Amino acid sequence: MNILVTGGAGYIGSHVLKALLKEGHQVITLDNLQKGYKEAVTGGKFIEGDLADKKLLNKIMKEDEIEGVIHLAADSLVGESMEKPGKYYMNNFANGINLLEAMINNDVKNIVFSSTAAVYGEPDEIPIKENNKTEPTSTYGESKLFFEKALKRYDDTYGLKYASLRYFNAAGADPEGEIGEAHDPETHLIPIVLQTALGIRDKIYIFGDDYPTNDGSCIRDYIHVNDLAAAHLLALEALAEGKESSIYNLGSGEGYSVKEVIDTVKEVTGRDFEVEISERRAGDPAVLIASSDKIQKELDWQPKYTELEKIISTAWQWHKSGGFERRTNDE
Ligand SMILES: NC(=O)c1ccc[n+]([C@@H]2O[C@H](COP(=O)([O-])OP(=O)(O)OC[C@H]3O[C@@H](n4cnc5c(N)ncnc54)[C@H](O)[C@@H]3O)[C@@H](O)[C@H]2O)c1
Ligand SMILES: O=c1ccn([C@@H]2O[C@H](COP(=O)(O)OP(=O)(O)O[C@H]3O[C@H](CO)[C@H](O)[C@H](O)[C@H]3O)[C@@H](O)[C@H]2O)c(=O)[nH]1
Fold first, then answer.
1. Cβ distance 171 to 63 under 8 Å?
2. pTM listed for this prediction
3. Ligand nearest to the CA of 115
4. Core-most of 66, 93, 143, 161, by most CB within 10 Å?
5. Complete DSSP assignment for 35-83
6. Which residues are identified as catalytic?
7. Residues with Cβ < 8 Å from 49, sequence gap 6 or more?
8. Residues 179-236 pLDDT 10s
């Protein structure tokens, strides 16, 4: 298939791209490189451009004869979304609509969308199922939920078929060491702990140890980025074969506390470092664990990296190697 991957120079997108290339697909990556890295695009055609550019989107659909879209491009910092809501509605919602319009104009009918566990807000029950109430506590989560609603309208109106994948905490790196997570600024727990193990940071702060969990720190469901990537391929193939639109959670189904993550990093790296308890971070739910039963049953998706140790080991290999060179432009 000729597949357009938006945000393919980013962390998750580059792993999706690599998995698509391995399956022999023709891939066109669109990324504005605001957060992504050119080096992360390991094959296919790369177009440096922005989702705001409607003409470009139409041109790509036509000239590259796109048959399916995987849409990962977005802004995804929860804290920033609370300070700059407009940026999030514009990029994650309005720019996404540009993409849908270009698809419809060019009769492209299948899209896999990167949604997030942040659409749920504080969950009613654990593990979280897809029919849990969706009351996002951040603009980020809301912008993603709005786009999910738009997808439903486009399906009702034009017969556009979508799979919306609500990821939990993406983690780990390409086991071949070619690509990995390189966010700047980094806000995610595992890379931050690894940077501490490497001495890039003085210490790791645990954001709150008074949550109603076994050890008082927050529990999350970490899913390996290659397991995520595999789900995109299954979802796109299912749509191409005529499957109806659907929403799926994607997690490993296991919860680990912040303290457990830190202890596992110490074991995997063989390094000790300072840990300090600090204030809770605003908006952090105590426990987020996915039920991924639906995608397992419907698309036969099976996570391969179910142990935290394995997930962290792949990330450690990547961080130890130095990752991508620091970007030199000064935007
Ligand atoms: N990382 C996680 O744990 C996680 C969890 C849930 C959902 N998600 C979602 O998954 C997707 C990918 O996340 P990631 O961690 O790889 O983020 P990322 O920032 O590494 O990748 C996003 C990419 O999109 C590009 N981009 C952003 N806006 C663009 C635009 N208007 N035009 C063109 N390119 C644009 C960026 O340059 C970047 O390369 C996002 O949609 C995010 O919301 C991520
Ligand atoms: O230095 C740190 C960084 C994080 N944490 C804690 O570690 C846990 C995980 O935090 P991350 O920032 O790694 O991940 P989040 O669970 O906050 O968020 C991730 O998952 C969400 C959905 O669950 C959204 O999709 C979001 O985009 C994605 O980053 C949280 O309890 C957080 O408070 C620390 O204690 N110290």
1. no
2. 0.97
3. 1
4. 143
5. S--GGG--SSEEEE--TT-HHHHHHHHHHTT--EEEE------HHHHHH
6. 140
7. 30, 31, 32, 56
8. 999 998 999 999 999 999 999 999 999 999 999 999 999 999 999 999 999 999 999 9
Among 195, 258, 276, 289, residue to substitute to test ligand 2 (most atoms within 8 Å of Cβ): 258
What are the beta bridge partners of residue 118? Answer: none
Helix (H, G, I), strand (E, B) or coil at 30: strand
Atom of ligand 1 nearest to the CA of 115: 7
Q: Is the CB of 288 under 6 A from ligand 1?
A: no
Q: How far is CA 199 from the centre of its chain?
A: 27
Question: Which tokens belong to 295?
Answer: 């995608």
Could you write out the DSSP letters of every residue in 121-141? -S-SSSSBPTTS----SSHHH
- In the block, tokens 């440096």 appear at 48
Q: Which residues pair with 45 in a beta bridge?
A: 28
Calpha distance 113→91 (Å, rounded):
14
Burial of 305 (0-12, 13-18, 19+ CB in 10 A): buried
The interface pTM score, or ipTM, of the predicted complex is: 0.97
User: Domains (ranges, CATH) in the chain?
Assistant: 2-171+222-250 (3.40.50.720), 189-220+253-320 (3.90.25.10)
Ligand 1 centroid, distance to 198 Cα (angstroms): 25
Encoded tokens for 144 = 């993603």
Helices (H), the chain: 11-22, 54-63, 78-83, 85-88, 95-105, 139-158, 189-197, 225-240, 258-269, 293-299, 308-320
* Local structure of 114: helix, strand or coil: strand
